[in-house]
Write a sequence for this structure.
């Protein structure tokens, strides 16, 4: 299994880091079989698996349950578990306890949290001080949609991009070993990647990050909405109902089961 050290080395050598989200036994298994470098059990599970309109209602219990299942499918892959909304906002004590649960109960290798404000920096320091590796996340952070007023690209104005750059520096200084950059201009992604020693992983942040992450259901064409930065490698949203409809028709027409499907012919 790769480690935090491996990811640092990959950045140094210019080898792109491939991350994909997964949420359960089969997606973990397929991600590992595909040879990804790391898996994120993202709180995007709220939208693509649990059917919520956003990520805000995802709980610690949800992330623990889904990380455990993902681990059973991806026994040899580095797994990052997302810290849900409000699991790292109330106190440093609660933050550390929640991060520790993701490592001890769910078998994650690292945790991820969103934002770069002063209190987030304190949270990153507190968690890394417990010897728990932290992935930070800046830009269009989905847990902030209510303050952003929707899914809006961040860092377009000079002052905003300077703020994100400074937060990236603070995150590195606080001890995070990796930084996800989401929904920012390509130039800013490039600038942060060039300046930081820790690897950056982009999602809608252009071509120059040290790695890329996409949501499993987006890659496979199974999501309700496809953002512009996504490349669909399959169109399962169309194919799955077609295949299921074929089964429905065959049962109704007495085409299934056929003789070869009979478990115990007498
Ligand atoms: O929850 C998630 O899947 C994420 C990625 C999109 C980075 O945070």
């Amino acid at each position: 299994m790769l480690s935090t050290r491996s990811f640092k080395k990959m950045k140094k050598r210019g080898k792109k880091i491939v991350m994909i989200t997964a949420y359960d036994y089969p997606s973990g298994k397929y991600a590992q079989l595909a040879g990804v470098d790391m898996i994120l059990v993202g709180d995007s599970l709220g939208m693509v698996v649990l059917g919520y309109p956003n990520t805000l209602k995802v709980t610690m219990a949800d992330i623990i349950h889904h990380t455990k299942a993902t681990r059973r499918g991806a026994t040899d892959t580095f797994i990052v578990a997302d810290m849900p909304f409000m699991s790292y906002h109330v106190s440093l004590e609660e933050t550390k306890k929640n991060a520790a649960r993701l490592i001890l109960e769910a078998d994650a290798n690292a945790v991820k949290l969103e934002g770069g404000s002063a209190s987030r920096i304190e949270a990153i320091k507190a968690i890394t001080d417990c010897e728990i590796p932290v992935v930070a996340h800046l830009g269009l952070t989905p847990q902030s949609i209510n303050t952003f007023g929707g899914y809006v690209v961040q860092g377009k104005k000079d002052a905003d991009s300077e703020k994100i750059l400074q937060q990236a520096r603070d995150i590195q200084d606080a001890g995070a070993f990796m930084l996800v950059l989401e929904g920012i201009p390509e130039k800013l992604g490039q600038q942060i990647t060039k300046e930081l020693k820790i690897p950056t992983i982009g999602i809608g942040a252009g071509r120059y990050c040290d790695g890329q992450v996409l949501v499993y259901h987006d890659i496979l064409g199974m999501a309700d909405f496809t953002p512009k930065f996504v490349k669909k490698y399959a169109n399962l949203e169309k194919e799955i109902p077609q295949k299921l409809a074929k089964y429905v028709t065959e049962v109704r027409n007495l085409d299934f089961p056929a003789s070869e499907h009979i478990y115990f012919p007498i």
Q: What stands out?
A: The chain has one domain: 4-235. The first strand starts at residue 17 and ends at 21.
